[in-house]
Specification:
By secondary structure, the protein is of the alpha+beta class. The chain folds into 2 domains: 17-159 and 255-320, Bira Bifunctional Protein, Domain 2 (BirA Bifunctional Protein, domain 2, 2-Layer Sandwich), CATH 3.30.930.10; 332-442, Rossmann fold. The protein contains 15 helices and 18 strands. The strands form 4 sheets. The protein has an 8-stranded mixed sheet with strand order 1-5-6-11-10-9-7-8. Strands 13-12-14-15-16 form a 5-stranded mixed sheet, sandwiched between helices. A hairpin with a 7-residue loop joins strand 3 and strand 4. Helix 1 (17-36) runs antiparallel to helix 5 (140-156) and helix 5 crosses helix 9. The protein is elongated. The relative contact order is 0.11.
């Protein structure tokens, strides 16, 4: 078959039918786990006012400086395809008065996001993010709850060899002292820093710690550590969080290199990191952003959350040998010979579908051999062959495709019930089924 002359854009991917069950597995686990923790789904627009991300993410971040897809249309303001999910959720919460319903507010989302960066394994220009946000609590127990939710998702997806890395980046009060210490440290080697980090040195020196340049990363190894500059409140919060996680038997390591890539984070930051997918080992990350609600126009309100790329989760699951839900395959394919049989198949299929069965029948006017070949291609569990003789006698042959076993089945108003018995036995036993003409089952 000829290929399309138009190719998908670089940094995007197609999720074809043979792969969609893997995505459904991740979405199902994420959704169900979040709901068990009391989180409810929110859906926000694919694009937002550009100012939302400049104010929330930060104008010194790589996301704002290099990676945003910004668009305009005649007569409209400037909009940006959302590069992450949190800012839009907070904007929607404030605009729709959700905080008036009481706190904590616990929201989750599964949404497409867009960043213009170099495509690589698990990192695309259009990617999909699962995220959870909790608005209202300031206690370290809320941090532990969000981390427990993240850990639950990872474990239920069957992802192995994952370590929780934990850090605190303090509040604006103690970070001011830390920024000064960083400026003094990096100023001595300013000329060695990349051009972007030279600009960051005055505006937000913590961003240098997150730079991907090998030279900047090497210089940053000797930089001052944020934990040495925490104020009393931030230090106490971080110590309490560690105790709660230990009491919950959630293992972690302190990693002072973690600062996260977005400016809105405060106090707790964390990442779940695996060694199974190479250098890009973070499968989920998040933390506190106690100033974001106020930054976007609301009253000062503590908040925290996390996000994870679904593509990254999928890649890690495959590396871990995780199991996916089974593909939804055809329960019954009706093979027909002759016009009367085709009409009967077309009338029988919707009756079976109304009972919840996945049913297909011939739409291509194929011969019987070609129809059976197609039934194999779609992994049909059973086939039913209909011709003039079967319609006249009201008896047809029901074939179990994986064994070739056949049995007679009556074509009457009890057909649906009989087929359901056969299918249930097939699904439970997952073994060859032998059926007497009266549809009783035997070993």
């Amino acid at each position: 078959m000829a290929k399309s002359t138009v190719q998908r854009p670089r940094g995007t991917q197609d999720v074809i039918p043979s792969e969609s069950h893997k995505w459904q597995t991740i979405e199902k686990v994420c959704r169900e786990t979040a709901e068990q923790f009391g989180f409810k789904e929110i859906r926000t627009p694919t694009f937002e006012d550009t100012g939302l991300f400049i104010r929330s993410v930060g104008d010194t971040t790589d996301v704002v400086q290099k990676e945003m897809y910004t668009v305009t249309a005649k007569g409209d303001s400037e909009f940006t395809l959302k590069p992450e999910g949190t800012a839009g959720v907070i904007r929607a919460m404030l605009e729709n008065g959700i905080l008036n319903e009481g706190v904590p507010q616990k929201l989750f989302y599964i949404t497409p996001c867009f960043r213009h960066e170099k495509p690589q394994a698990g990192r695309l220009r259009e990617f999909h993010q699962f995220g959870c946000e909790m608005i209202g609590p300031s206690s370290p127990s809320a941090d532990a709850e969000v981390i427990a939710l993240a850990k639950g998702v990872i474990e239920r997806l069957g992802i192995k060899d994952v370590t929780l890395h934990l850090n605190s980046i303090g509040c604006p009060k103690c970070r001011a002292k830390y920024h000064q210490a960083l400026k003094e440290y990096f100023s001595d080697r300013k000329e060695e820093l990349c051009h972007t980090c030279q600009e960051r040195l005055d505006k937000n020196p913590m961003r240098i710690l997150d730079c991907k340049s090998p030279i900047c990363s090497d210089i940053a190894k000797g930089a001052p550590v944020i934990l040495d500059y925490l104020c009393e409140d931030c230090d106490e919060h971080f110590k309490k969080l560690q105790k709660i996680l230990s009491d919950m038997e959630i293992e972690f390591v302190i990693d002072t290199k973690i600062v996260r890539g977005l400016d809105y984070y405060t106090k707790t930051v964390f990442e779940f990191i695996t060694n199974s997918i190479g250098a890009q080992g973070t499968v989920l990350g998040g933390g506190r952003y106690d100033g974001l609600v106020e930054t976007l126009g609301g009253q000062p309100t503590p908040a925290l959350g996390f996000g994870s790329g679904i593509e990254r989760l999928l890649l890690t699951m495959e590396s871990s040998g995780s199991e996916f839900i089974e593909k939804n395959t055809c329960d019954l394919y009706i093979a027909s010979l002759g016009e009367n049989a085709k009409s009967y198949a077309a009338s029988l299929a919707p009756v079976l579908r109304d009972e919840g069965f996945y049913v297909e029948y011939d739409l291509m006017d194929r011969g019987l051999k070609a129809q059976m070949k197609y039934a194999n291609k779609i992994d049909a569990k059973f086939t039913l062959v209909l011709g003039d003789n079967e319609l006249e006698s009201k008896q047809a042959r029901l074939r179990q495709m994986d064994t070739g076993e056949e049995t007679e089945i009556t074509l009457d108003d009890k057909f649906c019930g009989r087929f359901q018995e056969v299918l249930m036995c097939y699904m439970i036993d997952d073994a060859p089924i032998f059926i007497d003409d009266d549809l009783s089952f035997k070993d």
